[in-house]
Amino acid sequence: MVNNYNWKKKKLTLAEQFFALKQAYKDSTCFIQGHHTLIWRGQVCPSPLSNTYPVEIRYSLGSRPIVTVYGDNIKKIDDPDFPHVFHKNEKTNTVELCLSYGDFDSSMLIADTYVPWAIEWLYYYEIWLATGEWRGGGIHPKSKK
Questions:
Q1: Over the chain (145 residues), what is each successive 10-residue block's mean pLDDT?
Q2: What is the DSSP string of 5-40?
Q3: So what's the pLDDT on residue 2?
Q4: FRET pair for 15, CA 20 to 30 Å: which of 29, 69, 75, 128?
């Protein structure tokens, strides 16, 4: 006998996201701004030979997390072929990473998705710096200055 129930995934609260992020990334900073936005900041290093990059994730319930990498380790930001980002700002040396194409929903932990995806993006970014070729795959939006 087949059940025809539509099982709904449990939507995680900002507090649940907060605790998962703090447990997984103990040296990070995480807080809830107002009642609707979680902000996580941490330092990530994609490989033992890599630079360390500051990353910020902003998440409001019902929206996709916005992941920004910033700082002096972001190189070639003025390159017109800078890969796989939603936005980049040369003045502030920040890039909003393109990490998801509808792959995330509110039942998923940011600690298990967006942070590892950001680390993986940075790994492929460093390969792009060395080779000029983006090898990280994905659908590439046009970047905006």
A1: 61 96 97 95 96 97 94 94 93 93 86 96 97 85 49
A2: --PPPPPPPHHHHHHHHHHH-TTSEEEEETTTEEEE
A3: 57
A4: 69
Taking CA atoms, 51 is separated from 66, 79, 122, 126, in Å, by 22, 19, 9, 9
Token pair recorded at residue 40: 């996580």
Domain ranges of the chain: 14-131
Q: In what order do the strands lie in the sheet with 85-89?
A: 29-33, 37-44, 53-60, 66-70, 94-97, 85-89
Note the maximum CA span of the chain. 62
Q: Indicate whether this model's pTM tops 0.70.
A: yes
Whole-angstrom distance, CA of residue 36 vs CA of residue 26: 23
What letter does residue 1 receive in the DSSP assignment?
A: -
